[in-house]
Structure formats: structure tokens, C-alpha cells
Here is the input.
Amino acid sequence: MVVYLIVNGPPQSQESTTLERRYQFLGILGDDIVGVELSRSDDLRVSIVRQPDGSWQDRIQGVILTNSSLPEQISSMVAGIPFRQLTRFSSTQDLVQYELTENPQLVVSFESSAFSDSIMTYSIYIGTTTPNNQEYYAVFVNPSTNAVQGEWVYVIPQFYVQQLMLMVERYASIMQTGQGQTPDS
Here is the structure.
């Protein structure tokens, strides 16, 4: 299944019709995600990993989070991101027009064993909004090389991207004030 994700984009396990548009979902649950990193273009970042006991740890500060509500919301939101194929691109096509280059609006990376027998990392670059401001452009990238994977530019509904951006902001605020965390023992 990993090959399918890399070559063709997200699996087509579930579909939903919204305003005559067909969206695909990753086909996983928030519980299937064991790590998440969200990086905004303004350098705000979340990097969390689920511990064997189900708690969450901040990878940057090395602290166990005493309140797992926001990390659970983040993992569920990432698992639930709907995608719609927009256009095929060639290896020579420039993705600058979608802001899907080295500095996208948001980078979503997550770790899961839902698509293979081992934990794999998957990354999505989210660029600029579409002309109607209803969706954002996105591509899958290799998390090691940042090379675009597959041959599609996708769009993601604006609501999901804005919610993830706000969650990064909320998380950064919580970590800055030291609320909801205990030192890693």
C-alpha cells in the first residue's frame, strides 16, 4: 500500500461527494497516527509523538503532555484531511504557481503503520489557496528528500487547512506558557 500512496497519492478507501466534488480520504483514524509534525511558513511548529501508553510527548522540548486533548485533535484532523485530485503535472512542470516548493504555507508530516508493517513517514506540502479561496493546493512529498511524489496536485478544503494552522498556534501558545506539560522522566 505504501507504493500506492507514493505513486498515486492518498488511498481511495473512502469517498464523499460535496457540492458535486469527489474527495478522497487517507483511510486511517487518528489512532493510527503515532507521530505528527506541522510546520507553518512563519516557523511555528508542532512535533509530537504518541507514547506506548497513549500519552503524547513533545519532540522539541522533550516533555510529556499532561493534556492529550489537542494532540488527539491534531492527529484526528490530519487523518481526516480530504483530498481531491486537481491536475496532473509532469516532472518538468513548475509547482511555484501553487506555492508548493521549498516554503509552502504548511507542511504536514505524519507517521503511521496503517499502510505497511512498519511505521512510515508521509509528508504533504500545502501551498496557496485556489482562486476562489475555497481550497488549498497540496502535493505529497518524500519526507527525506522533499521531492514531490506521485503525479497529482490535489486540493484540500480551506476549513481543514485553517484548523490545522490554528492548532499549531494553540499548541505553540500552550508550550510557550508551559501549560499541560511535565518534564520527561
Observations:
- The CA atoms of residues 30 and 79 lie 5 Å apart.
- The first helix runs from residue 2 to 8.
- The two ends are 37 Å apart (CA to CA).
